[in-house]
Known about the structure:
- By secondary structure, the protein is of the alpha/beta class.
- The chain contains eight helices and 14 strands.
- It has a single domain, classed as 4-Layer Sandwich (Metallo-beta-lactamase, Chain A).
Amino acid sequence: MSLEKGFTFQHKDIKLVGYSIAGTTTSVAFPEADVCFDVAQGLPFQIPYPTILITHGHMDHASGLPYLIAMKNMQSQPIPNIYMPEPLMTPMNDIMKIWAKIDQHTYKFNFMKVENGRDYPLKGSYFFRPFPTYHRVPSHGYTIYEKKKALKAEYKSLSPVELGNLRKQGVQLDEHFNEPVLSFSGDTKIEFLEHEQVRKSRILVMEVTYWDQKKSVENAREWGHIHIDELLPRLESLKCEKIVLIHASARYTTKYLQEILEARLPEPQKGRVTLFPRPL
Length: 280
Ligand SMILES: [Zn+2]
Ligand SMILES: [Zn+2]
């Protein structure tokens, strides 16, 4: 594992690849849906993804766009679709124009604004829906949904033969639903947990920047971030199978963060809450 390749996280059928340390680098890809959240300074592991979702315009999350676009263009990939908060569109376009001058090259990319609550298509049966987050600059989080179907409850006890007969008669046996597979917080204050789509996601990848009393909850809130003291009392109210913590400050070692989790997580939450893999 390295900065170029990212770290791999796996929970059941869900694999993520990324790297996240507050103020340094944050970028996490979800290969199954062909999508990458944030681009840090621009890293090789992001190059295959055709869709990029930018949470906000801080350098450690979004400064890599020119690099990434240039690499994708150079490899003759399809024009990338890059979604972002609306106020970022004009300045990011200006940055791309300046790089085009420096590089004497015309870049191809689609920048698109996002609106909270709207659905946007991704690969196959996946789509995403942005939600509001609360940082120091305009920001969004994103939920990836998968369109699924399942046998209606009233038919679950029937045999395959009986089901086959009903199907032949044209009975609609399946119900369709959208499963919130994964939510990604970006940088935000704790209030983003109020959104139902976040609380019901199978996997929640969320920032916890501050982890001990050297930085208080007030400090965290002032900078638009989350302190571990704010998350712990809310864990029970979250329906997520797994809560994956990113964006811890560079001031902490991984060992120190793991010791804090071990000491402070209530027994039923151990195993459900985990750090995204990061350098030791
Ligand atoms: Zn950040
Ligand atoms: Zn930020």
